[in-house]
Amino acid sequence: MANRILPFITLVFFSTLFSMVIGDDGVAISKQYPLVVSTWPFKEAVRAAWRAVDGGHSAVDAVVEGCSACEELRCDGTVGPGGSPDENGETTIDALIMNGVTMEVGAVAAMRFVKDGIRAAKLVMQHTKHTLLVGEKASAFAISMGLPGPSNLSSSDSIRKWSKWKENNCQPNFWKDVVPLDSCGPYHAKASMDVKEGGCSTRNLMGVAEPRSSLVGPHNHDTISMAVIDKVS
Ligand SMILES: *[C@@H]1O[C@H](CO)[C@@H](O)[C@H](O)[C@H]1NC(C)=O
């Protein structure tokens, strides 16, 4: 068996869809395949991917179907339109897909007004020489390629989450080494004793990186990562 096992990744909103394809050389199909694997118990996403790949669609298309299901269902409240808002209260979309056979990658990030992240990522992969399109450039591209939009990506849930977060002094947030620490911005870099004349920080050069949590769970991990193997020869 000459298996090529290659990664295949998709991100939706603050979330990664991680997918894998094993290349097909077109001969015998193992009974073990197709195979669909996903992070967390997103059964509807796995079922959608399974229906696609079991019905003869490629692993790439199966990942698109699986991840689109999560975007529509707003898995864990963060994936897709109406999911977690940014500091300004706006929901934007991130998605990344990789074809493990060809190693092509397509991605969108901070895409506004278009709800179909993974479909947009696939269009970037298929129809551009770019890897990543962002913001309104991503939206314009996606709409020009036929995806629906512009649409309002906020939901009553995302607006409620944002209001609660504002009421909670904008905590928690993704800032670090800034002041103010425990209220809303604007934020400024914390004055640091490390900054020496010439702008070099010896402490930073010598220091160790701030450790990140060693625990991986649904709340410090990309939301959905999906791997699909269509067949193996
Ligand atoms: C978008 O939808 C949200 C939630 O339904 C709503 O509060 C907001 O006013 C809408 N924005 C626009 C520009 O229509």
From TrEMBL:
Q: Where is this site: Cleavage?
A: 222-223
GO MF, any single term? N4-(beta-N-acetylglucosaminyl)-L-asparaginase activity
Under the heading Pfam families, the entry gives:
Asparaginase_2
Name the top EC class. Answer: hydrolase
Catalytic reaction equation(s)? Cleavage of a beta-linked Asp residue from the N-terminus of a polypeptide
- Could you list this entry's UniProt keywords, alphabetically sorted: Autocatalytic cleavage, Signal
- The answer on whether this UniProt entry bears the keyword Lipoprotein reads no
- EC number in record: 3.4.19.5
One GO cellular component, as annotated = cytoplasm
- Where's the active site on this chain? 223
User: Where does the signal sequence lie?
Assistant: 1-23
Q: How does it assemble?
A: Heterotetramer of two alpha and two beta chains arranged as a dimer of alpha/beta heterodimers.
State the name under which the record lists this protein: beta-aspartyl-peptidase
Annotated organism of origin = Populus deltoides
